[in-house]
Structures are given as structure tokens and as C-alpha cells.
Design brief:
The chain contains 13 helices and 17 strands. Strands 3, 4, 5, 8, 9, 16 and 17 form a seven-stranded mixed sheet that branches. A six-stranded parallel sheet has the order 12-11-10-13-14-15, sandwiched between helices. The two termini are 27 Å apart. 52% of the residues are buried. The protein binds zinc ion (ZN) (2 copies). The site of one zinc ion (ZN) has 4 residues, from loops.
Length: 389
Amino acid sequence: MGKNDASSESMMISPTISDSQLRLNDYPIPATMKAWVLGNPEELTFVEKPVPQPGPAEVLVRVDAIAVCATDIEIIRHGLPAMVDGGLPFNRGFTPGHEYMGTVVRLGASVDEFEIGDRIAVEVHAGCGRCRRCREGMYTACLNYGYPKKGHRANGFSTDGGFAEYAVNSVNTMVHVPDDMTDEEATLIVTAGTAMYGLDVMAGIIAGEGVVVIGPGPIGLMGVGVAKGLGAQPLILTGIIERRLEIGRRLGADAIVDVTKEEPVAAVRRVTGGKGVQYVLECSGAPNALDEAARMITRGGRICLAAFPADPVPVDLAYLVRNNIYVFGIRGEGKSATHRAAALMAQKRFDAKLIHTHTFPLTEVPTAIRYARERIEDAIKVVVKVGEN
Ligand SMILES: [Zn+2]
Ligand SMILES: [Zn+2]
């Protein structure tokens, strides 16, 4: 990446960055920018605020596109899981949004990993870099989560996010975007990264092994794409929305199961000749999903929960124990899973664009969020394009 693609990408990058700006770290940065900030619950205001300054190992990113995530909706309504200075994120001038991509426009003093003009996508969590979990690569489970004074950053969760014209990112949260990938598709890298992390924690070899993905939401659908890219076979997607299941088929599912028409455990047993699969990636949050997942897998199989029900649910624990079933829970996308997901997307192993359904300008973030929340016009991934208002 570097100066050459700045001109070839002029359709996607606006404005184009000149050669002299690339050399001199002098891309013109205004003092203030437009950004959405969270006031009271459900109250987003479009304001002018200072453009942040990158620290020594950070860059300033001009946000070019950002996808709306279900977690954004949760944060705007209830605060958690966002946490700013140890408290809820309301009325602190906090800018939400975490699934963004953009262009590097200013380098911190020690940054040589990126150049001005590089197109990048971000993973959410930089972590603190000093706690035990961060040192293990589990920075999404940082023990100093929500405490920027301890060095913690998770943009859109504990530090300012991407519903704005600019954002500061640690170099450890960025991955290069290939020239032939659109801004909209690049916003989906982090979603695919979450699915990749779910498959990672099950420590699966995946290739040639059976995988069920429960729930064709954005993470579930990306889970299908990633599992396919890793060679899963058979790969089965279960869910209730027919249009989304069809997208799952196009992303590589060998079989799709509409659970309104067929009992899903029986369907998985039918597809696998009675044996069941090795891994289940649970992305639905349905109350009975864990019990169903347990009955879809072989003895000794593994389940990863990437979604959860709102209320506590009874679970047949004896079945899990008797069958030596391993259950994992993930938060976000640790251990550089985003980088591996980006590699699969760069190799075009699956077409993430299939889940992008709507696009709005930065001025219309509340509308974009409403489309995602209410699934208006069958919305799946709603993207906000910045700089095209
Ligand atoms: Zn998200
Ligand atoms: Zn940490």
C-alpha cells in the first residue's frame, strides 16, 4: 500500500491525497470535525468536536465508512457494554461506532507500520497492553477494560469510535485493505474477525470437519463464509429468515435448515448421516440454542457461544458432561482473528458483500441505526459512508 493506490482509488478515497502530502505527513487536518455523540440513552447529537491527536504508536484515521452493529444499538440504548472511565457512556461526549475503515492521514512519532494514504480496516480492541489477558492476546477480555488511564482502548466502547470524520487508532488495531476491496466491504472485516475468533477458540482444524452455524445474522453469515474458507465440510446453517438462509447458501453453506419447517437437530443428523458435527458456532442467542447445539455435535465436540439470550435459561448440563462437550464463550475478536479474516477476504474465499444491504451518509446515522434495528427492507448490514454528504 502507499502512494500509488491513492490515485487508483480515487473513486473510493475523497479527497485524493497528493504525493507531497504522502512524503511529508502533512495531509491537511482541520482542528474540528463532525461527530455523533451520545447524550442520554437513545439520544445522539451531531456536533463539532476537536480532531483527536495520535500518540506515538497511533495514527489518525480519516473514517471513510462504518457499519452499524447490533452492539451499537445496545450501547446507545443501555450503555453497556460500553464503559467510559469506569462508568456508563452517557453524557460524556462519547462517540460510538466500531466497525469502520478509512485512510491513514497522520502518523504518530514512532509509526513505521503504515503510511499516509494507506487504506485500513480496524479491529475494535487495542486493550491495555499491560494486563495478563492482553499479554496473552486476549485483549477483548482486557482486565483494565474501560479505564483509559490504564492505557485501555476499545474504540466505540471505552474510547471514541467511528461515527465521526476522524478517529485515532493504535497501530495494533489496523489491517491493510486491498486496493480492489470497496470501503463498504472493508467495514465487514471486523465482523468476519468475530466469526474467525469463535472458530479459533474451539481450536478446530476445521478442514474436512462438520460445522453448524446457528443464526444467520451478520456474525453467523460471516461465520459461514469463514468456515467455508477454512474448509469445513459439511457446513450447515440453521435459522428462521429464509432470505438470510439463502445468503448463507451463497456464502458457502452445504445445507441450510429453515427451523420453522424442520426440527434442526434432526436436520443436522440427517445431513451428517446420523453422526453430528464437530463444531457449532452459536450466533442466534435463542434460549434453547445451547441444548440444541449439544445434540447436533458428536461426543467430545465443541460449541462456541457468540451470542446470548437476554435472560438466564435452563440448560441440560448433565448432557454436556456425559458427552464430554466443551463450551466456549467469546467476546469480540481477540488474538488477531481480524487479520486472519481479512486475509480470507483478500483471497476472495467468500463474498462478504452479500450481507451489505443499505448505505447512508454520516448526517443520517440515526436513520441507519433505525434500519438496522428494525430490519427495515430486510436490512442486514447497514453502512454509513463518511465524507459524501
Ligand atoms: Zn460490532
Ligand atoms: Zn489489558
